[in-house]
Amino acid sequence: MLELSCPNCGAPIPFQSKASIYGVCPNCKTLTLQKNQTLESLGKAGELVPDLSPIQIGTSGKTKDGIGFQVVGRIQQRYSLGTWNEWHAISHDGTSIWLAEAQGQFMITQLKPTSQDEIFPEHDAIQNLDSPPDVYFISSRTSKQPLRAGDTLDIDKETWMIREIGVATCVAGEGELPVGFRTGTTSVLLDLANDQGWFATLDYSHFPPLYFRGMIYNFDQIQFINLRDPKAFIGFQKVEQAKAIQCLGCGASLSQRSPDFSKSVGCEYCGTVMDTSKDELKILSKFQEVIKDKVFLPPGTKLALKGKECEVLGVVKKSVHADGQIFPWTEYLLHFTGGYYWLNETNGHWTIFEPVPFIPRTIPGSYPPKKNFQKEEYKLFNSSNARTDFAFGEFYYKIHAGDSAELADFIAPPKMLSSEKTKNEIFWSIGEYVTVDDLKKSIQGEVELPAPEGIGAAQPNPFTKLRKRNVKIATWLSAIMLVIQIGFCMNSQDKEVFSKEYSYVRNPVPGGTTDFSFVTETFRMEGNSRQNVQIKINVPALSNHYIYYSLALINTQTDIAYDTGLEVSYYEGVDDGESWTEGDRSADVIIGEVPPGEYYLRIESESDFQRGKGTDTTLSIRRDVDQSMYYFLFLIMIWLPVPYSLFRSFSFETSRNENSDFAPSSSSDSDDDDSSYSED
Amino acid sequence: MNFLKPLLYPLYAIGLTSYLTYTNFYGGGSSNVDEIENVPKTVRENPGVYRSHYTNFMRYSGGK
Question: Are A548 and A603 in contact (CB under 8 A)?
Fold first, then answer.
């Protein structure tokens, strides 16, 4: 480790990394620059503002993918919602990396060199710290190609989507740094992301802008050591307790439940929205209309969702205007230690959303457009322009009356992937459908919730589950029974125990319709009592006649008879030049569970032959025949109900899609709300 | 009763499977067979003494 003396006070300034050429004196806060093993003073480094960061110089950590680092310096920045830190760290191999934190997410990036030919977007002069200037590419001497959140640009042969255009003011710095800073300077920052999970920032505090590229991690994906206050730190500390504030619009007393989280508060009585990011309240805007109907979870409601103890902080009423109709819904901001959720209620259907820090992957060439997120495909359900009609309670951002955003909802029920795009920011969130019963169970106390109307966009299709289960059952049983059937087939004797040819002649008994009866010779049947017997009669020359046989299979020892009947009939002809046939020249009957023993067959026939006329017949008796026919009947019967559950599932999806951009009737009017989803 | 609805198909499938297994195991005889006990010994000598249950039947009338 290199130690050099501060040119201002002489105190030692340590340098652990060769990449660090700037250092802030820990004693007198002078910013210095290394030159030939000495330090040159660049002036005061500014005063750091106390913040809630858990990280400090000396904190070390290791990411889930094995990036180990130790924090050696930081630059603190201020933006419209407060401050954040860019921590400078040295990785285990000596590489200089940057660690930034925002709303529970940690971005680990590296400063990447770019080619001199690289063309970066430019921006207008910064006029307002709360509103970023226009960002654009110069496409010719006279024209600009403006860039908004959601637009794409190429840097270092990689395509990025702009997530956010922001403005930051440098507050101060400490420790050792590879880049310099100037307290009080304001610069534009472009946060970028791609669908491969990478994150990047273009920092316009330098020219050309600094290009940082890396990944986003959750707090629990990094093993930290030596945090600022490991005993107290559990993601975020609640520093300030709830307090009462007075509405600047109507004077009503309002409670601010989470002062260190919220940046704006909306008055539920008069619609005034106030900026609470600074000590002195300031009016941001005012809603013209107070809309408090159908607010089921007022601020202060406590509930336990997704394993977190949450509290409702704010309520937002939004709507989409399309086809002359208004489609309203309500969003509830839920705050928990370390982050937040949004709980959406539309027509009594509830979906809980959490932020997604990167851009879901687009599946090219899909219609409807599809996104891939966490190995799951989501298809576009609808896109629209939504506006904020009313908001009250407190919010982590500065909410304004009349805020509008382009929304796009992609679904893979029970999940929903949503994007909300404004000029300067595109915000992705992943949602999951919550049943009314589950939501009721999660709420502390008694709350009246509305019954769901129709089908929710992310409502799980109960018939899909049923259909999949039924197909699984049918498939498994078909396979199992096939094996069993093969076993029965292989075990069956299928042995002919008696066969004889007879010449049938019509010879009715006097006064009757049946022919004289006769019996066959006796024959033996082996096997066990479970086995069957097949009696088959074949009349090869039968034409336009029938012969009916009353049959009795009689056991010579037990005097038990198995009594049955069998008809052989075959008719044929030509009608209107078309030949037809009906019936069959052979027929059989199967008698089940015939014990082994000696048997004979009594046969009594009847037919429509003329007396003295007849035909040749063959009688065959077989023991223990195979019954595969039953398996095929089983297959038909087991699969028969499956199309029904398929139909129910399809009907459910059809009903769901009636509310989507892809409903059959609305294919031409998807733009009625001035919105059309594009993959740009 | 709603909790029974999802069970309908599995119960039906189990019933069907059981029936097929039973049928296969016991030979799968036709339903139009009657087991008659104490048939007279004289049937072999005089087949006409036996009275069949299967003398009334429906038959094809033929033609279209």
Answer: no
